[in-house]
Design brief:
globular; about 250 residues; 9-stranded mixed β-sheet; alpha+beta
Amino acid sequence: MRGVVALCLGLAAVGCQSGKSEPPPAAARAASGSSGPVASATADPAAPAPAHIKLPRSPATPVRRTTRPLDRDRLERLSAAAFPDFAREDHDTDDGSVEVRHVTQTRPRLGVTVRIGPCTKSRACPAMDLAGWAARRDELARQLPKELVGRPDTRFEIGARALAGAAAIYTYQLGYSAGTDDKDQPSIDYSDAYILYYNDGVNQIRVMAHYLDDAVGGIDQLLAIAPPEDLEKLAVAFASFYVHGWD
């Protein structure tokens, strides 16, 4: 059966748990369940995209800082973008932002969830400083299903990388747990996701590239099917496309 997906979709990380019943996903990267900050991205920028999809194209020019909050018309135009190898899904929001998810039309099913909105008092835009984001590790790690938190093989990483010439922050998470629920029914929780955060102090974007397909038996199998390098490629390509369109 297809895994039941339960993911945090806010611009800032908030509490999130995976579903139960049939296999459900989430995600993480680190060592022995935790890690310190990482100074740069893990993937080779010249590496090819996942073989079964074409990534969005965007200019090679650096992203320009915005000078005013994105208005509703611009947000709706940005969220209306569609891509040939992906099915597009609109998600409702109630905070002045827009959210859309693009899902590969061929397997393995990979999703790219994009949320864009202005910086506000309730959704502050912290500086793109690795030390500051690393201090929020516990908050960011709440995106993991509770069944994966604390497992010695769950991995969670916070790092810095460039996005179209600008400083950005990413997290990567990976975990897998198989057992039974409180009714002694088989229960699987898993997560394999790369999440990219960027803001320029005026507007912000959060792009999560994540595995959405069936439970596959464990962490090694997840890594073989949806390695972090592929998820990073997805997140960076979509983030670059959108930030080049919001100025």
